[in-house]
Every structure is written in C-alpha cells, then in structure tokens.
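Explain this one:

_____
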Amino acid sequence: MTLKKEPLSQFINLYGYDCQAIKNIVSGNKYTAVILTNGHIGVCANFGNDVTAVIPDLKIASPDLSQISHRIIYTAYLNACHNYHGFESKEDDIWDILDFSKEKNIVMVGLFKPIVKKFEKAKIPLTIFDMIKTDHRLTDMEDQKNTLQQADVVILTSTSVFSDTFLDIVNATPEGCRIYMLGPSSIMLPEMLQYKNIKMIFGATFEKNDSRVLDVIENNGGTKQFLKFGGKNCLSPEMIRS
C-alpha cells in the first residue's frame, strides 16, 4: 500500500507524541536535538528557523504541525523514538552501498557536497537542486519538477519531510524511479518505505545519553561536527522482512 498523507501527519496519528518521555530539547543555529528519558537521541536540521522559542511549549504539549519549528522538533522526536529500530542496519555511506555508475538521469534534491564530490570524481552526471543553499553546480529550482519527471534515481534530502515538500517531490517522479532518502534528519520508520518510489533510507543514530552530540548542536555546530559521534545507518524493505 502506497501512503498518500504527508509523513508527519501520518506519524502523529500512528505514534503520537509523549512529552513525558522527553528529557531535554536543545537547538542551535543549524540543528535541533531531542533526548528521551531512555537516553535515545534524535536530530533534525533547522533550515534557518528559530526553534529555541517554541521548546518550552513542546515540553508540555503536542506539536502543531502547521508550524515549521514544531515540525522540526517532532521530526527529531520521531528519530529519537524510532531510529533505534530492531532491524539490521549497515553502518555505511550511500556511495558504499549503491552503484551509480550505470544509472542515467540521476537527480539530487538537497546539496550533499561530500556525495557530489564522489560523483564528480567518478565522472557520473548529476543534476542538483537546493532551495536554501547557493552553489555553482545547482540547477534552477524552476526546472525541478520537469527534471524529476524524467528521473531514474533521486537522492532526496530527508529535510523535505519537515519542510513539507516531500510529497510534491516524490509524486513528481515516474513509476519505477528509485528514491533514496539521505541525511541525519531521516526518519527511519518502516512506513517511510511505503511512500511512492522510496527504496532506502540513510540516517544516523547515536550512543545513549551522548552529551557530546547535544553540546555540538547547542553550540551551533553542524553535521560534520556531531556525526562523528554517531553511526550512519540504512533501512530497506529487505531489512524489514529479514
């Protein structure tokens, strides 16, 4: 069954939000982190949004998914609750798991510079879109829908979920396209694989109660600074069935 409802609305109905399970919420310029009373940590990018102002509200009440700052905290909460899944995970980079050398019409939505460098080194063509960042390698956002309609493979930033652009992007892709979600904001729930063309999800998990991750985020650090304390994990339908 292919899910049609936007993910966060889907998940709040399925899994809810238990503020009593939250030990702390911290936020900096780049990321927000939620740590649960069991020590599990989840993170989500901020996209320049001020999340700090709404933290007190989300410690005592459920999120209002019409507000982007609430969506960010809820995404981090879901990651803390569910990224520590019982499925077999691989601590590998997307480039180590997938072979892009014979693929055509590869599209990246969300600029992942380390991955782009690997494509460039391998001389594999890649069309890149990003609604926030600036880079000479980016294609004009006006061309995104038409390009997605021709895509064979899409590497999609998981920030598309909280920014509420996810459904527009996946629904623009043709049947048979393979979408791989990427980034520490990834929600590694099996239901994410029930959306159109989603084949694998690459996310991150952290050791319980790792204060180093929270310190980096609270002091305005980004992915490079805190991801070294975590593991890169992936989720696919095969792992769920095993």
The domain at 94-204+230-235 is CATH 3.40.50.11590 (Rossmann fold). The radius of gyration is 17 Å. The beta strands are 22-27, 31-36, 41-45, 106-109, 127-129, 153-157, 178-182, 198-206, 230-235.
